[in-house]
Design goal:
Elements lengths: L3 E6 L3 E6 L8 E5 L3 E3 L5 H9 L4 H12 L2 H10 L5 H11 L1 H14 L8 H14 L1 E3 L3 E4 L7 E2 L5 E6 L3 E6 L8 E4 L10 H11 L7 H4 L8 E2 L16 E6 L10 E5 L5 E3 L3 H26 L5 H14 L5 H16 L6 H17 L4 H18 L3 H12 L9 H35 L1 H4 L1
Helix pairs in contact: 2-6, 9-10, 10-11, 11-12, 11-13, 12-13, 13-14, 13-15, 14-15
Organism: Rhizophagus clarus
GO molecular function, one term: histone H4K20 methyltransferase activity
InterPro entries: SET_dom, SET_dom_sf, TPR-like_helical_dom_sf
């Protein structure tokens, strides 16, 4: 494969490394998948799933794998990451559990072609798909010969995109030098979460604790909490003081706490285990769990009660303030709710909330064009439809002006460019019309205008 090679590293295992330099926006890797799993839709498969109470997503992984050629099966079983044998049972208790074991037993018993396949093979197949696959097309997942060997970093130098249900494409988000490891981000939109929330997801879904520089060496910008010393406001609507942020202690001294907190206004310092932070952490965990549960629900049922969103919004402001990732997620939910329901009477709220979201991403160094291009295009389209051409153009320009990912987000970039041209044309016509009106007024009564 041009520009990349697979290498083994004692710390990271197999990974991809650059054999030449890549520039930001350049496609580093584009490949067809070895195997693709889609949610099965045939009547026969659905009947099997319903009859024996088998999760269709799990069954589809097994069916797709065992329907593949022996060459593909061997390539998948022998070339991708699995936990070492002495750690497999522990890993299985996290990833698989008795629920998947029950499905495996039903499949072996009821599918004639699978009767002689060992349970261990089913476990390996499920584990490989869970730990090595990428999302693909609208509802699928895929394993790639090269892309599935990329290691994770919370500040990865590439991002992944499924293109037209045909290719998996990895695009450089910064300059990559020859010899540098090529990394990807397993978290996608969840990359804006705090270190603890990111690690919890990766431990549950990928079985590792991330040790990238963002997790071990950086201030946690996604987790600003109101300072107990200088936030003295009696109003729960807005904080009037500073925010504390978590900093790592770069020391191997085990007697020290692993992190400390520092206020950006009064410089108060708190250790991680400070009693003054305990109640704040409890409230934070409760709100995080509520928002994560809501996000998971929306992935299945795209409907939410607006009053519930407002309750969470108010709770975030009152308890955590406006510099925590939960607040940004809630703002995005509110924006999408108003935009999706055509609530043009709420367009001022959409504009204000979207401006806050874009400013937060930009301030903290998140790659706005990558993370928010689809989101902003959708919301800007609604604003333009509501006649807000200036605001629609402003938000599109924030993301798509000097856009560096036009080779990856091809259709989105084209749609955004067309909308920006439309907005500029309408605004120019309106400006020209206004100039003509003023000119006519001056001609008719110059003293009155003066």
């Amino acid at each position: 494969m041009d520009g990349i090679e697979v290498r083994y590293d004692e710390k990271y295992g197999h990974g991809l490394y650059a054999t030449r330099d890549f520039e930001k926006g350049e496609i580093v890797l584009s490949e067809k998948p070895l195997i693709v799993v889609h949610t099965l839709s045939t009547k026969r498969d659905r009947a099997f799933s319903c009859t024996f109470d088998v999760d269709l997503g799990v069954f589809s992984k097994f069916k797709t794998f065992f329907d593949a050629s022996p060459e593909v099966q061997n390539a998948i079983l022998n070339n991708f990451y699995l936990p070492p044998q002495d750690q497999f049972e522990t890993a299985w208790s996290i990833i698989g559990s008795t629920y998947i074991d029950r499905i495996i037993k039903i499949c072996i018993k009821r599918v004639e072609a699978w009767v002689n396949i060992p349970e261990e093979t089913f476990r390996k197949v499920y584990m490989i798909f869970t730990l090595n696959s990428h999302s693909f097309d609208c509802d699928g997942s895929a394993i790639f010969a090269f892309g599935s060997k990329m290691n994770h970093s919370c500040e990865a130098n590439t991002f992944y995109q499924s293109i037209d249900g045909q290719l998996g494409v990895h695009t450089a988000v910064k300059r990559i030098l020859k010899g540098e490891q090529i990394t990807t981000d397993y978290l996608g939109k969840d990359s804006i979460l705090s270190k603890g929330a990111r690690r919890k997801i990766l431990q549950r879904t990928k079985l590792f604790t991330c040790e990238c520089p963002r997790c071990t060496e950086r201030m946690d910008v996604s987790r600003g909490l109101p300072c107990p010393n200088c936030n003295t406001s009696k109003s729960h609507r807005r904080m009037n003081g500073g925010y504390i942020y978590q900093y790592p202690i770069l020391s191997t001294n085990e007697n020290k706490a692993s992190n400390y907190w520092l206020c950006d206004m009064c410089n108060s310092r708190f250790e991680e285990n400070s009693p003054r932070l305990h109640g704040l952490f409890v409230r934070e965990k409760d709100l995080e769990n509520q928002i994560i549960a809501l996000e998971e629900k929306l992935n299945i049922i795209p409907f939410v009660d607006h009053s519930h969103l407002i309750e969470l919004y108010n709770a975030c402001i009152a308890q955590l303030g406006t510099r925590h990732w939960t607040y940004i997620i809630i703002l995005k939910f509110l924006i999408l709710f108003d935009a999706s329901n055509g609530k043009y009477q709420s367009k001022n709220a959409i504009i204000q909330n979207l401006d806050q979201v874009l400013n937060w991403y930009d301030k903290h160094g998140f790659d706005t064009p990558r993370y928010l291009s689809v989101f902003v295009l959708r919301v800007a389209s609604v604003l333009i439809h509501a006649g807000e051409y200036a605001y629609g153009l402003h938000f599109l320009e924030c993301v798509f002006e000097d856009f560096e990912y036009d080779n990856t987000f091809v259709q989105d970039y084209k749609d955004a460019s067309d909308l920006m041209s439309k907005c500029r044309s309408v605004l120019e016509q309106a400006s020209s019309l206004q100039d003509n009106v003023v000119s006519n007024q001056i001609h008719m009564d110059p003293l009155k205008i003066v």
